[in-house]
């Protein structure tokens, strides 16, 4: 049996399924709302195709019958949240949104995304997880159907290397010289429901929930029992080579620039007058940016490739996973929201063209 998500790369590809998802979300089991009495704010992917935007208009007004609605991209809403957190809100923001399907770099001026300077990298959390699944399945045991488990392994064990070539060379060693190597004890869903990390260079000891079962058992017997009962996943260079794809996607044949180069290209596409303001306010959002060392590695690479006269300031928006939602709630509660929406009556009279003009403003 195979399944597909109704949204791929940020765009709806299966409208029947997506309609059911929305219907349940709006229904009595979740939000319990009456669309005719509500205004809807939706996020959409940067540079979303007009055909998909038009279909969303039809679903919102003709199928569900909302009173009014508005769309914004996730980077724009994340930038709005970042502004509320800053002591000196800036008019220019350069957002790097590394999410599930892809990574976008979006310059924003006065709340408006500069689409001509937006860049997209087809590497996101999904690709990193799939790459890790492939490597583990080839080297250890088949985990191709264990997406949630491998995602958990990625989030807990993978990290962005600050000195990739040096750390990669250490993975060739055995024993304590290999400082990258870790072991992940797979969950058995009886005594260990999530799995736990183990450093093979440390003395063997009982870890996690299973430790309680071995109380009073001599150390040698513990190790023997663990060896027979536990399923252990050994990770070494995978911990750094998988996240490295964000910086060098060509390693797996994706002929695109890495995240630092994408930011540099976005800056280069903007007029010189705003480059300094954008470079001094680079905001990171999206779950993939939570990989350890991501921010520091990006800052170092930007400093190497950008002109020295540009001040580089890179910060994380708080709660990158939900930044777009929080930004949307701020926008929906603002005084300007009502002037940005399209009502059902306006849509009936002017159609899709009004939605495109107003949502681009």
UniProtKB/TrEMBL annotation:
<dbReference type="Pfam" id="PF00022">
    <property type="entry name" value="Actin"/>
</dbReference>
<keyword id="KW-0963">Cytoplasm</keyword>
<feature type="region of interest" description="Disordered">
    <location>
        <begin position="200"/>
        <end position="228"/>
    </location>
</feature>
<comment type="similarity">
    <text>Belongs to the actin family. ARP6 subfamily.</text>
</comment>
<dbReference type="InterPro" id="IPR043129">
    <property type="entry name" value="ATPase_NBD"/>
</dbReference>
<keyword id="KW-0539">Nucleus</keyword>
<dbReference type="InterPro" id="IPR004000">
    <property type="entry name" value="Actin"/>
</dbReference>
<dbReference type="GO" id="GO:0005634">
    <property type="term" value="C:nucleus"/>
</dbReference>
<protein>
    <recommendedName>
        <fullName>Actin-related protein 6</fullName>
    </recommendedName>
</protein>
<dbReference type="GO" id="GO:0005737">
    <property type="term" value="C:cytoplasm"/>
</dbReference>
